Predict the structure.
Amino acid sequence: MEAVIVGIIKSAIRLATPYLYASIGETLGQLSGVLNLGVDGVMLMGAFSAFYTVVRTGNLVFGLLAAIIVGATFGLLIAFINVTLKAEQGISGIGIYIFGLGLSSLLFSVLIGTVQTVKGFAPLPVPWLSGIPVLGEIFFQQNILVYGAFLLVPLSWFVIYKTPIGLSIRAVGQHPEAADSLGVNIVKIRYLTVITGGILSGIAGASLSIALLNVFQQNLTNGMGFIAVALVYFGAWKPQTVLTGALLFSTVNAIQIWIQVKGINIPSDFTLMLPYIVTIIVLTAMAKRHVRPPKALNKPFERGE
Amino acid sequence: MTMKKFIVFIAITSIFVLSLVLCVNAEPFKVAFIMPSTVNDFAWSQSMYDALMTIQEEMGEDEFQFDYSESMFIVADAAAAIRDYASEGYNLIIAHGSQYGSSLVEIAPDFPNTSFAWGSTANVFTDQGITNIFAYEPLAEQGGFVNGVLAAKLSQSGVFGVIGPIETGDAKHYTEGFKAGIESINPDAKINVTWIGSYSDVALASEAAQTHMDAGADVLTGTSQMVVGAIGVAEQRGAYWFGYDVDQSSLAPQHVVSSVDVIWAVALRPMIEMIKKGEMGGKIFTLNLENGGLKIVVNDEALVGKTINDIIQGKIMLR
């Protein structure tokens, strides 16, 4: 039984990793008022560029840098479309998704051609802590991108709630007019959050292709980016609740795999639905909390002269 | 004079007829191939693409040409593509997936001069009066059985993990064969089966592989394009992998022991011959070990590696 519980928690931590990067990146953008539905496309581009760089150079740090640069470029593009050109955000996000899906598939076909594996980030035991019985095995024998994802939660919480820039981000998303009158540069803040979101989506992709799966295939993310956007709503635009949501979804997924492995007699069609059913139940239960999205979400800023 | 004229007439006519015949022959046999994933998916679609390439090599590019549409997982998109290809006069349209059957029933009667093929299935719809649909079906359980026997011989823990996509069709038959193969050697084996609910969820397939190994499995197998993630886990954590669809050994040469390679060309060759003779459908082509439609590709590197390792670790004592 202990082995099963340890296994479930280890699985959940791995499964939650790409969601954490992508969802926290999306949280930052949405807090400043920009909805980006193209997360999955940016994840795919990050995953591909990291993978391709590692195939070519064998250097994992270069791979991660490639994902960051490509993610930032996509972030810049998304910000330009939504903030400068003031496009309809829901539609442009779908466009970005399809663009990322298509471009990553095309580049994969042309530049690599066939499925292959790479040596990704290996588990990096944390000195001292990894020796703790049970807990050490679960939490401190993961790879560096897993640690990064979980450290990102307190870091982003600190930035959002304890720094002047975080205050500006929230102000821009809630009351852009007021923020503007106080001299906050709305365009600059939104570019900053969306580009950061792009970088984190890129890293989310890299966490799959060069750390957790060590392989690239067309549509590798299989729609994870959309679940990441859903987790932002689930998490009520707070990093700590986004973490809860990501862990809940991943834990139920890990449990359903174990139910199948242990041969517990529940049809696989049902166990596979569990993560989604549980998420919907929790969302419904939480609907009474009166959580509201940032007021300026999905609204381009027009300065009233 | 009349005789001379007649000979000239015959000569000219025969040259004309001959050139006409040559012209007809110069028209290549054209195939359209619609697939749910991509030609480099390392599984289902790639195996059919490989077969079409083989046939093109055999017949020559002047005689045989094919075009394809990738990522047609959505049946409505596939149906539109099938209809487009049919109206463009392709000789044979391969709708490579058991989800495409109902579309073919709709489309095939409108194009009696075009042949359609689909699989894996044994349904050609002759009972509905349709005469231009072929079907193809690998006996996946045969390949699964061979893989299972090899797996049972290799496993030390006696625990096996199967990572299947959706519990239907080839995946289901392969899994049943694999289980029967193991049980024929080791009746006490523990065979854990997980279904991912998708053909493309690489991350979940990979996590299922991790879970199987946490549960003690030292041999893994699975089908569909999502297994590439699971093969990665087998390589990283040192389990043996048994493949299906194509030879998967290049993904993890030390760990992929054998793969069931589906040779679709075995179905396509006689199908093309029939179409050329004007028989447009109605036949089911079965691929099995006997007719060479299933081939077991054993990867010596993995077996040699294991044997050497066993000697070094003292599991095999020679003196």
User: Anything to note?
Assistant: The radius of gyration of chain A is 20 Å. Chain A has one domain: 2-289. Residues 2-31 of chain A form the longest helix (30 residues). Chain A touches chain B through 39 residues (CB under 8 Å).
